Write the structure tokens for this entry.
Amino acid sequence: MDDAERLIDVQQVTRRFPRCVALAGVSFSVNRGETVALLGPNGSGKTTTLRIAAGGLAPSTGSVRIAGFDTLTQWMDVRRRIGYLPEQVPLYPEMRVVDYLRFRGKLHGLRGTRLAGRLRDCMDQCGLGDASRRIIGTLSRGYRQRTGLADCLLHRPDVLLLDEPTSGLDPGQSQSVRDVLRDLGRHCAILFSTHILTEAEDLCQRVVVLTAGRLAAADSPEGLRETYATRTLEEAYLRLTTLPPLVRNPTARSSE
Amino acid sequence: MKAFLTLLRREISAYFHTSMAYVAGIFFLLVTGMSFWVLITQLARDPAGGHLTGVLFGSDWFWLAMLLAPPLLTMRLFAGENRQGTLEVLMSAPITETQVVLAKFFGAFFLFLLLWLPTVAYGPLLRGSGADVSTLVWGPVASGYLGAALVGACFIALGLLCSLLATHQISAAMASLASAGILVAPGLLGVQPPKGLPDGLVQFLSSPQNMQDFAAGVIDTRAVVGYLGATLLLLFVAIRILEARRLRG
């Protein structure tokens, strides 16, 4: 893949908070047509990575480029190209699903028949047809997740950044979200965090494993299984996240 | 501009989808109703004496409405969005901080003006009741409304900034009320500002005195520039704080 196809480029990103270092010199990239899972224990820096990639949080050092645009200095170009779904799916509870999506579409510059078409397509794609007139505050977690996902897709972004997109969903809902992601992953770059390793194995060409803010591994699920001589990704993940940092993966790019 | 209008429409509709507009509306009607009652009492006692607009735009009830309505209208603007996490999603759309701050400000200001709308009926109501309203002159009424709008805009910008800095809606409302109170209390309580303050600042800090001038039909350009300048400055600070959060996280 050449550089033009590199849609997410995280370079030596460190993020310090007053009481902790959430990320320490993390580097990885995601190309067009690639779906990459961010794995790691709670507090390992997955959400921070996604927030920095979405431009909602600035890195202390290092840079993130989305489709070649720097998230810090070219944030408007970045915002036009991303669809971002935070973990808690924050939506306006007083709005109807269709009104919320229309509002979000308009913010992305969609108008008239183009907006109506995208609304119809995204609601169909995310299984929201029967909930379009419902008040968001009355929706179940699953429908809120679908609404957030539909919002991400409205403007046909090049990059999808999703924080635990299937968390809290029942198996059927999770499967339908995975189907949507699999379909989108053919022409977008998708970076999503998850604790469900079978989901990562099912959807992703590569996984990025973070532990305590450091990059522990960035490889394909098969590659990780081979490297750690395990039968499943789960076993490899457990070895990665329980071994001391220096022996986890000597090939992983990490500055610290 | 289209994104701004989209944001503005959402801000205004959000007031009506929650109880806030109705709570603020009922409260405002009650308090301005008390102001109207004071006006009627004044007319019954001394139909020809005093200037009625001074009662309408200068009573304690008027200041109660002016102090409490802006915090009610602005407390949720950023503090509520921050708490729900919706601000992060909102700011992931291709919009600027300026558009967001201005849309929230004008949304709240529109609601504030809407709250004043029923008071327009006071004049015709008085006339209809057969009261002597010869001292109720339209020029001072108009400048009184202008003064109320200017002071309101300033207090709303102050409330918006407090909402941006606070983590909780209630603390935003308290901070907004306290800081607006500083501008009003000296004038209402008759406390002299400390010596050595610049004249312009003393003028600005005397909101009740300024309102008395507006209600008397005197449009003092220092007061107009002062309130407009303070409003713009507060909005500018809010925009810069929001930008700084993006740049520093």
In short: The CA atoms of residues 210 and 216 of chain A lie 5 Å apart. Chain A has a mean pLDDT of 89.
